[in-house]
Amino acid sequence: MSGPDGQPPTGGPGPGHEAPAALPEPGREGLAGSAEPRRARRGRVFGGLRARLVVAFVLVALVSAVTATALAYRESRTAVLQRKQDAVQDDFRTRVEQAAVGFDIPPDEVSLTEFASGIADGLGKDAVVVAQYRSLTVSSDTGADRSRITPALRGAVRDENRMSFQRVERRGVPYLVVGTPVTFDSGTPSGLDVFAIASLRAERDDTAGMVDAVRDGLAPVVLLAAVLALFAARTVLRPVRELGRSTRKHAAGDLSSRVRVRGNDELARLAGDFNDTADALERSVGELRDQEARAKRFVADVSHELRTPLAAMAMVTTVLDEEAERLPPDAARAARTVSEETARLTRLVDDLMEMSRFDSGAARLRRADTDLAEAVRATLSLRGWTDRVRTALPDGVRASVDRRRIDVIVANLVGNALRHGADPVTVTLTADPAADLITVEVTDHGPGLPPETLARVFDRFYKADTARARSEGSGLGTAIALENARLHGGTIDAADRPGGGAAFTLRLPWRHPSEEDR
Q: How far apart are the first and last CA of the chain?
């Protein structure tokens, strides 16, 4: 008799074989468990660029480490199992060839057991050899679990008459099962099949140890990635923060702020573009401010120069008004026209002079203890509006204000309502001691203010009816009223009334007469 038929062992199950049972992958659960919290934290990104960079770096490092671990585990596991498989098959073939020399067929149970034990002695202490001759089956270990030899493997050895192997798992332990037939020298099957069962526990533990080592190294890798991400984020975000600071300074009016340009990358080019834009903006704003200052000086100078000739013209028009009754009709009409236009021009120059004082910062308050209800009544009486205006003016509301400027505010608001609104015009005075606030509201029943007018009603020289070439007002009344309110620390709001008409509301902080000037 000879040993095995000499055909090379199969590298895996042939047709009809079961697929090799995969070794469990120790540590894989641990990897998934450690990665899952990070994935959960990824969903709670705080939104900042720094956090996004850190999360991206950590995720890349984590995915790379897990991928490298999986690939290394697969390759090392394959190499370890292949080495074990080749070693077991070579030893098994050699032991079977040696034991088969002089072995008599048919065997009895005793000789077959000795045959199996002799082969097992050379394969290691954990190896179990099972010999089967027709219906007689013996084992080198009487307590061995023969179910590890699957019917598929038995069929492959018997039907294909060549060495085959299979990996199986029983009770969580992987095994390599190798089977081969014993043939005569002539190649005739002897009917004797031999199977070796070798444990793969050591190989599984080796690969598991490697995976555990890699898994334990994930924490330092992720930590290093986070540190590198913070460093990269700091490098990237430094020019971004500088851009933000400079932008905020520009928004606050400081156009001299610039960003330092570092390197030649995209951020450096962005910083350069920002600086160029800031230079152009600063030049443009500077030119606009110079033009505005020159325009204000021009208006102030012209207004000042016009006061003297206007004073002379006013005296002449006064004389003409007195003599108008004795003049011919055409001359009288011309004299009245000159008088009206001179008075209008005088009011315009006075308004321009007032605005120039506000622009130059020369306007000052002359506060005095004032009964506001009495002051509003005096304004209406002085201009002959008492019969045209309804009032709700509670007595006893006293405050420290500049009475002349309060008169200007009320006169402009009421005059504007009488010219552009509709009767009745109402003036309401209210005081809120809890908020230390005084409110004067002027309302009318006219058509109200269109949206475009509401946005510009306090602009200088703005007139809602642009189709008219001339009007009684100069277009400065509401602007002067607002500047006087601001001088008191208050404001004026304009709005449409729900029932129709417009409402102008003056709000002033209630400064009591007993308070000292701050």
A: 124
Nearest to 454 by CA among 445, 464, 465, 467: 464
Structure tokens at 94: 């050699």
Q: Is the pLDDT of residue 391 over 90?
A: yes
- 12-26, 100-114, 257-271: segment of lowest average pLDDT: 12-26
Q: How far apart are CA 169 and CA 145, in angstroms?
A: 12
Q: Rounded to the nearest 5 degrees, what angle is found at the Cα of 378, between the Cα atoms of 377 and 380?
A: 65
How far apart, in whole angstroms, are the C-alpha atoms of residue 273 and residue 10? 70
C-alpha span between 479 and 504 (Å, rounded): 13
**Which amino acid type is present at position 432?**
D
Q: Which of 39-48, 83-92, 117-126, 393-402 comes out lowest in average pLDDT?
A: 39-48
Dihedral (C-alpha) 141, 142, 145, 148: value to the nearest 10 degrees?
60
Contact 145, 170 (CB under 8 A): yes
Domains and CATH numbers, the chain: 28-223 (3.30.450.20), 258-363 (1.10.287), 368-509 (3.30.565.10)
Looking up tokens 């890349």 gives 60
